[in-house]
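tool_call: predict_structure(chain=1)
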Amino acid sequence: MKVLYKRLSCIMIFLLNLGILYAQNVSEGVRLFTENQPAKAIPLLEKELKGANPSVELYNYLGLAYSQIGDFQKACDTFERGLGILGTNKKVLYFNQGNAFYRLEDYQKALNCYSMSIVCDADFAEPYLNRANTNLKLNNIDDCISDYTTFLELKPNDVQEPKIRELLDLLHREKEVRLAEEKRRQEEAERLKQEEERLAAAKAEQERIASAKRAEEEERRRQLLEEVANSLKQSSDTTNMSAGAEDVLSYDEESDID
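tool_result:
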């Protein structure tokens, strides 16, 4: 019994010393952040980052603190600063930056951030879930289904698993509806195309017939003019000039000249 008590006492002393050591190593800014006081933590974290050899984790804490007070643009900027620093946790920074862009409703940038987080660690489940939610906002049904499915494969016992499966069922049904609608639109477009081609062919035939009639009418008028012209020429050829006595002038009156 005394041995057991002695061992427990040693363990308690070890844990107490470990807690004291942790408290000494944790910065004031991080402490305030963990105590849910982001507004007070931000100026301290900014100051600590400007100090000598700051911890690379401070970028993540500061970005999260800005997110907690609702300044998501500064959160994005802070995470971006951290991404340019050697040794920072890139998959977490990209993930948190994606969350900030999502809150700003900049869904395309959020999508890119989640994708980069997945590139850093393909087994990191959370970015798949958030990217799926973002794809849903962007109406990318196929990508949405893929990401929700991958998330469930990585975290099959997640607390949201029933809701996600319900959503997947709805998405599959929506996909079927969209495929049917797309098929209907394609068939309608094909019918319209065929009808337009038929009308164009009918119009071309009407124009051909009208053109042929105009040509026939022009030829008829030409022949009529030619016949009239030929008739006038033949009439002038048969015209005779006579010099009969009735054309000679006579003087019956006597001359006044003796």
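agent: Residues 45 and 62 are 6 Å apart (CA to CA). Proceeding to next step.
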